[in-house]
Amino acid sequence: MEPRFPLSVAGAAIAMLAISTLRSAHASDDYRISGPYSHGNLAIYLIHGASVPGPVPLTLEEALAKGAVRVRETGQVNELELENLGNEEVFVQSGDIVKGGQQDRVLMVSLVVPPHSGRVPISSYCVEQGRWTARGAEDPNRFASAHTAVPSREVKMAMKAPIGHDASQPYSASTASRQSQVWNDVAQIQNNLSISLGAAVASPQSRSSLQLTLENSKLKAAQADYVAALRSAGESEPDIIGYAFAINDKLNSADIFSSNGLFRKMWPKLLTAAATEALAAKTSDPETMPPTTNGVTEFLEAATAGKPSEATIGRNVILETRESDGALSFETRRATTGDWVHRNYLAR
After folding, report:
1. Which of 45, 54, 131, 323 might form a disulfide with 306, Cβ 3.0–4.6 angstroms?
2. What is the pLDDT of residues 141-152, one digit of tens each?
3. What is the DSSP code string of 160-178?
4. What strands lie across the sheet with 240-247, from one edge to the other?
5. Are the C-beta atoms of 105 and 97 separated by less than 8 Å?
6. Contact 7, 41 (CB under 8 A)
7. Helix (H) and strand (E) counts for the chain?
8. Where are the domains of the chain?
9. 206-230: per-residue pLDDT in tens?
């Protein structure tokens, strides 16, 4: 088959926020960065900018819930099929976890899927080792939901790092080796969460399933504290189009969307994933200061400083990748118009 931050907030209740401005290497966009909004060992930075006009796509989670899209097995671990049956564009984010099928999967790339798309292949990695049959009453040929996002920069790097990246990273160019690394990272997430929460988080129904781990009741209670403290900050202003975050004072990753509408749809899922990653990385180190907004600006600038390379995915998407010593960036654009929809940044 093939924490330590000295500042803790309730929502957006911050006495003073630092602000910096970034001129993006992508299409000369101007971003304003505010924050940090901190809780425990997680610091959130909000990215402000102009929204593109036009309809906001459905998210994969929304589309699956209303039956507008189908995600099917192909008989291969590392490839699924999506089909948009509806009249609205559907946005799929890299890192979305789909539940069901023969094994739960995490989707590798961000896509925009047009209405009545026909069957569109998408690369995936298994986040549930061993099962290759129906689980309970689930349909073994289709996936029913996409409520969660993968809570791990390491998993994202294992899936997405370009061939020929830093040899000090333990990821092979081969799909099989990457899949093995994803499984190892999932097991590490489960182990770290169990230590942090003081209770086993693996589900007896399928102990290797990351999705079922993310449904653990004790984990959900711990996530809720982070979400209660931080969610309203991301919903406070109409020009917020993205966020970056740091865990244990180290910048982790960032996501920027083409509109505030799309960001707001994705925000609860992404914040919950960041909270989970922070819980898995809890330490007993003394409190220190989170990065400044200037540090976030430097991180995003480093991510876009590398030479771009492009790949066409199906007929509808162009994926631009940039690789530098300190970071990776990935931009998803519509092939028909060249308009960007999503930008993802990973610290190395």
Report:
1. 323
2. 999 999 999 999
3. HPPTT--TTS---SSHHHH
4. 18-23, 30-39, 42-48, 240-247, 250-257, 340-347, 327-334, 317-323, 308-313
5. yes
6. no
7. 7, 18
8. 58-220
9. 999 999 999 999 999 999 999 999 9
